[in-house]
Amino acid sequence: MHVLSVVSEIYPLIKTGGLADVAGALPKALATQGIRVLSLVPGYPQVLARLPHRKEAGRLEGVLGHTAIVTRAQTEGLDLLVLEIPELFDRAGGPYLDEHGRDHPDNWLRFAAFSLAGARIGLGELPHLKLDLVHVHDWQAALLPVYLRHKYASTLPVVCTIHNLAFQGQFAFHIAPRLELPSSALDVDCLEYYGGIGFLKGGLTCSDIVTTVSPTYAREILSPELGMGLDGVLQTRRSALYGIVNGIDTEVWNPAVDPHLPKTYDVRSLARRQQNRAALLGCFGLIDHGGPLFAALTRLTWQKGADMLPEVVEEIVAHGGHLVICGQGDRAIETALQNCAERHHERIGLHVGYSEDLAHLIVSGSDILVQPSRFEPCGLTQLYAMRYGAIPLVGRTGGLSETIIDANDAAMAREVATGFQFHPVEPHSLREAVRRACDAYSDRSSWSSLQRQAMKADFSWERSAAQYAQLFEAVWTAWHQSTGGSAPASAGHA
């Protein structure tokens, strides 16, 4: 089976969050299931710079008023198509924000064009390329199934994955005429959303299957509390909604061979982590007082619970601990954390921004990784932390509740615990979880046992990729039986 994955970011080329990690790891895992994935990504400057030897695969004229050159390249086990429309994607800043941290004002056009191009590629407009199914990710690619169904009357199978329902691609209705879609796509049963246009809503209504990144989150988003205004739409798609837990790339995230680390180690050589701890403290200019080293590697937003971090700083310091934070987001949260770092300059450190090198150092050198998310579809940071022996401390929600076994007395006695959960996700509960973690840390033998148990947890892509493969096969089989189409393409990806 040949699958076109349409995604706005992909590791190692361009990354703003966990979406890129999943997009970069899942194709390699699906290859072991007999599924070949070709990933379509926009031609951002960062992508073009990493792929100097790409070759032209074809041109698409009339992509919402633009001509697209589609190039092809391979890197680190990924087979890639790059959509090159310089006036839309070759610009300063990141994939979604400009160099000043503001949304690109034409994001609606950029990702509508991306979706339309993906639909045309899926339908075979590029020579020597036949595809059996399209897999779209989040709102940036969600117009693709809308174009297939309403513009081209195509039944090509589409699976739509929600990585975070909070980001939906909502725009004013006045853009509707420029999307080049018939009126049938613009009503309340498809794109119309509270008087505007909802890209993700359209994708949810037009895809054959909708997946999200954990079974718990798949249930949570059916509720008004966590459905983000789309719970009614999702209720209508309930029979086609599946939750599949994300995995991690165990080659990229492997403490035994990680080139980012001052000292590599494995479950049998945990003592070596101390050199990474020293390097991490030194990176933030902190003095090691011997207490537990907490860390937060997250977007500094309300969703991630980062506003609660300043409220637990005194608790951490009172227990002789340290806290390092790496992330960016709301200016008010950044300012509050900077004030904490200035007040406790020997124990609290803040890095505003993101660094892949620093992320690897944090999970390899910290003792406890704090992830107090108010909602979390799956989360990858806690999986990286466990693999590296940093014990997660998480809010009990979404994928966090599924991937962490709380270190209560019974779980510790049976040696199955892998972290700490707290609920409700409020400051007082987080403070209590910090106290529990500090108490556990004081028993060094027990703590080492907890680290080893966390490091043994298997969050590779093998099981999850098999679930995706089964869904893809089921969707394609249903389409084949309903249309009498040909067997899955064997000549594609030449």
Automatic annotation (TrEMBL):
The keyword Hydrolase does not apply. One of its GO terms (molecular function) is alpha-1,4-glucan glucosyltransferase (ADP-glucose donor) activity. Residues 287-448 form the Glycosyl transferase family domain. Pathway: Glycan biosynthesis; glycogen biosynthesis. Its EC number is 2.4.1.21. It catalyses: [(1->4)-alpha-D-glucosyl](n) + ADP-alpha-D-glucose = [(1->4)-alpha-D-glucosyl](n+1) + ADP + H(+). Keywords: Glycogen biosynthesis, Glycosyltransferase, Transferase. Pfam families: Glyco_transf_5, Glycos_transf_1. It comes from the Bacteria. ADP-alpha-D-glucose binds at K15. Residues 2-235 form the Starch synthase catalytic domain. InterPro entries: Glyco_trans_1, GS/SS, Starch_synth_cat_dom. The keyword Cell membrane does not apply. Synthesizes alpha-1,4-glucan chains using ADP-glucose. PANTHER family: ALPHA AMYLASE DOMAIN-CONTAINING PROTEIN (PTHR45825:SF11), GRANULE-BOUND STARCH SYNTHASE 1, CHLOROPLASTIC/AMYLOPLASTIC (PTHR45825). Belongs to the glycosyltransferase 1 family. Bacterial/plant glycogen synthase subfamily. This is Glycogen synthase. It comes from Shinella curvata. The gene is glgA.
